[in-house]
Amino acid sequence: MDTEDYRKSVINYLIEFIPEQFRSACNNYLLAYPEIREIRIRKNGPISFTLPESNLVTGMTFSQEDIGFTLNKMTDGSYFRYEEIMQCGYLPLNFGVRCGIGGDVFTEKSEIKVLKSVSYINIRIPFTLLTDVSELTDLIKNNSYRSSVLIFSPPCTGKTTVIRSVAHYLSSSGHKKRVCAIDTNYELQLPFSPEPSICEYLTGYPKAKGIEIAIKYLNPEYIVCDEIGTSDEAEAICRTQHSGVPLIATVHAATFEDVCRRKNISSLLENNVFDYGMKIKKEGKNFRYEIKKLSNM
Question: What is the mean pLDDT of the chain?
Fold first, then answer.
């Protein structure tokens, strides 16, 4: 399935979550603006679409009933089955789609205990499942598969697509390495595989726990995880370093200086966890990579 066919399949899938009275208009927007990255829904507010450099605000307004329709479709009629994961702020769907969820909650000691109602749904539209990451995988191969890499870029610039591609290609094709992907947000596992892979996906696991389980029981040659940043994750990653298993991870940051300003990430850098830093830049539908040895950054 090529990129264009994939996007069409995603749009056909997502449009069924929109109430019928808005479905045709939303589909027209998605066809007219192929660069749309998000469908943003809000209770008693306008539907909007996120473009690379702007926001497209429509005259269509979602009611509480419309929000209920969309959630019912997204959860296959089993809202309470997904309530706990929605308390974490997202809802995983097919095709690698992740929806951001927001609304009114009940908290106890700063922890969310009950999601009382949903007022906002942000549907992120992935442009592609896989992309060419041979520049990175070749570097890893040339370093005898021992290098750890920290990938960074601002939000919505392809980190998840890149890390998903790294997990797949390192565990298939000419590499065939035992890769363990910590797929906390249900975004890394492919809905279909273009070739055989020996990647294990720990789906839904908190990153710190997933890393610990992978090291203890799954004997990986590489660990891959998306969007690191908490103190628990930093501690688990430091333990990974002592195990000798290299790590490929992503973090939200526009520049290397921004990476260093993040407390838990800077501690990993100080402990020499990562050998290379890779910055992603999105150019149209393609990605450009800038890879540097961290000692030179």
Answer: 90
Q: Which of 10-14, 79-83, 129-133, 280-284 has the lowest mean pLDDT?
A: 280-284
Regarding whether 165 and 73 lie in a shared domain, the answer is: no
- Cα separation of 10 and 93, whole Å? 10
CA–CA distance, 291 with 271 (Å, rounded to integer): 20
Residue 142 is assigned to a structural domain of this protein: yes
CA-to-CA distance for 163 and 126, rounded, in angstroms?
13
CA–CA distances in Å: residue 23 to residues 37, 124, 174, 232, 268: 17, 17, 44, 42, 47
Question: 148 and 95: one domain?
Answer: no
Please, which residues have CB within 8 angstroms of residue 246's CB and are 6 or more apart in sequence?
145, 146, 147, 148, 221, 222, 223
Domain that holds residue 258: 134-296
Is the pTM of the predicted complex or chain greater than 0.90? no
- Show Cβ contacts of residue 255 under 8 Å, excluding neighbours closer than 6 positions: 279
